[in-house]
């Protein structure tokens, strides 16, 4: 009932014309943090019949249907966050390697540290995306000093075609890359990506891929500050403000209106009680900031409405309210522009029913017309309870770390779990691995032996 009311109340038409969308097909990483071997997450929908109308969509390529969401479970320290760090590193390096580094600068790469076989090997990253009805496969190998290899292919019908392939400082160019690109490669540093250089010099294909990767948005569920700014920006825009307001109201957080005020550093400072030395430092470095307030109704002794009171969001609202406010902007943006939204610690601070409602938004043809994709990491097993009907077996990923420190990722479909299995019960019992239960039981047995 809560979900139904949530979705009905939230109803809005997204009329924003799309500049371009990105569809994430597959991401692969190797020799990075806890990923020793090649490990992938895959959005390609399998032949499963469940929830086909809501949870999957047809890509512009006739042979590829994609999942709208993935949920990743796993024990503490199993590598869930490392997956997001790997994808975040790839995005950051693609966007900035040609602009924000100079010759000789080290590359901030963290190879798998628990094996002598990986110590001197490069880390590997590959992404497959669909941008403007074309599928691209792009990847590179890199260590802390240089790019070892880099390649870009595009798919036409059932065949891949080379755009370029690099081995250290030599390059093989395909027919779709103009001959002037050879000159650009000659100025590409050994610690920079050729794709980044091409985009910097307005190569059409590279710009499409770079603009596509910009639409992969990361949020850490325990750090709300940056994404709160995204929500504030949308509230300041007349086109998006009603959408954000409806989303906030639908969550029934106790307020009906949000007010944004720009306040100078001095005014902001006067609200606090800082020591004099800190006051001087604050005023010297402060700029104009946005202050968010929430409007609450005030009632008399007969419970009649007599006025209103504004609460400061940061100091007077709950952690859950602040988190949902922070997520509101990125959610609206993703649904409007067809972004890929990645949220670590998704369910922290939020009520499970509210989390389910967010998942429902993305697994919805009506509210997700541009096929935005959602990737979340969670410890809340109720999301895969069969009664909730939120995820297919190919959408549920289990992260597991071996005794050798290696992370593996496998879907319930890959584990050959039956459709009628009790996903939540079996997961919590340790049947799919990805929990700390075996370790806890083992430790308890050891303690009993010494008692």
Explain this structure to me?
With 451 residues, the chain is of the alpha+beta class. The protein has 2 domains: 2-220 and 326-442, Rossmann fold (3-Layer(aba) Sandwich), CATH 3.40.50; 254-316, no CATH class. 32% of the residues lie in helices and 26% in strands. It has helices at residues 2-10, 52-55, 80-96, 180-186, 194-200, 204-214, 225-235, 241-250, 265-270, 276-285, 313-316, 319-337, 352-362, 423-428, 437-450; strands spanning 22-30, 39-42, 56-58, 65-67, 69-74, 123-131, 134-142, 147-156, 159-167, 170-173, 216-220, 257-263, 289-299, 305-312, 340-344, 373-377, 396-401, 407-411. The strands form 4 sheets. The chain has a 7-stranded antiparallel sheet with strand order 2-1-6-7-8-9-10, covered by helices on one side. A 6-stranded mixed sheet has the order 11-15-16-5-17-18, with helices on both faces. Strands 12-13-14 form a 3-stranded antiparallel sheet. Helix 5 (194-200) crosses helix 6 (204-214), helix 7 packs across helix 12 and helix 8 packs across helix 12. The radius of gyration is 24 Å and the shape is globular. The N and C termini lie far apart (50 Å). Residues 5-9 and 439-451 have low confidence and may be disordered.
